[in-house]
Specification:
Order of helices and strands: EHEHHHHHEHEHHHEHHHH
Low-confidence stretches: none
Structural class: alpha/beta
Strand order of the largest sheet: 2-3-1-4-5
Distance between the termini: 31 Å
Largest sheet: 5 strands, parallel
Number of helices: 14
Radius of gyration: 19 Å
Mean pLDDT: 89
Helix content: 40-55%
Length: 311
Amino acid sequence: MKLIYIGGFGRSGSTYLDLLLGQHSKIASGGEIVNLPELQCKKRGVCSCGCGLSECPVWGKGIKSVLQDQEKTPGYWLSLKLEARLKEVFGNNILSSLLVSVFVRRGGNKVGKYGRYNRLLFSQLAKHQGADVIVDSSKTTYFSLFRPLSLSRELEGELLFVHLVRDPLAVISSLKKGTNKALVAGEVRPRRFKVLRGFVGWMLANVAALINATVLKERSILIRYEDLVRDPKSEISKIAILADLDPVDIFEFIDGKKVQVPSHLCEGNRMGKEALKVGGSTWIPDITVKEKIYYFIFCSWLELLLRIKRV
C-alpha cells in the first residue's frame, strides 16, 4: 500500500486534490485522517458519505479493527491522541519519544500505540475500498507539522508527499469568509487576529512542508493550486508519475466521461459532501495596507523560496 500525503496550509485546495485523486480506480480519498482520534474522543464525527464514522461501512470497519487489536483500557483514544500530537508536532525522534514516555506513561497508559494504530487503520482503509493507494489530506498545520515524516517511519508502505501551495492572499480571502463549520451552519463567527493568524499559519505550514519534502527527497513534489486549477491534467500527471500510476481514470472524470466516485472522507472540509467540480477561481481581491505588511513580513520571502524550488 502507498500513502499520498497532501501537505501545506488550509484553504489551499487539499480536499479538492484529495477528491480529484480519488477518481482513480486504485486510489481512495481519506480526508483529514489526523482528526480521527480527537473525533473518537468526543464520540462524534461524520464521514462524507453521510454516516457517522463508527457506522460508516469503511471507517467503521477500520475503527473496529483498531479497537479489537488493543486492550480494552479506558482512555485509549485520548492517550493515542496525545501520543500522536507529540510525534506529529515534534517529529518522530528522541525528543518526542521522551515527551511521550513522560506524559503518556504518567497517565498509566502504554506507549507505542501510534505506529500500530496507523498501520492497522491504513491497511483496513485500503482493504475495504479495494485501493492500492490512500490519500491523507491532513496538511502540515499546527498539530500535524511533521505528520508526514512520522508516518513515513511507521507505515510499511511507501509515503509520497505532495506539497500543495496556494497564494497566501487568496488563502486569507477565503479565511475571511469564516471557518468551514460556520459556513456550513450559515453563521458568522468573528475571530480575533484572524488575518494575522492566517498569515502566520500559512508561513508555518509551508515551512514545515518544505522540511518534510527535503527529508523525503525524491518521494515528494511541489504543486501550486493555481496551476492545478488552470491545467489539472498536467499537475495530476506529475503526481501519477510519482505514484507510478496511469492517470487515465482521473482524466476521464475531468473530461466529463465518468461520473464521480463516492468518497469516504474523514470529517473536515465541507467540500467532501458536495459534488466535485473541476476547476476553480484564482482571482485575488484587493487587500488592505495592513495585509500587505503582513504578507511582506511573513510570506514574501517564503513565496520567493517556493518559486525557486519549483523551478
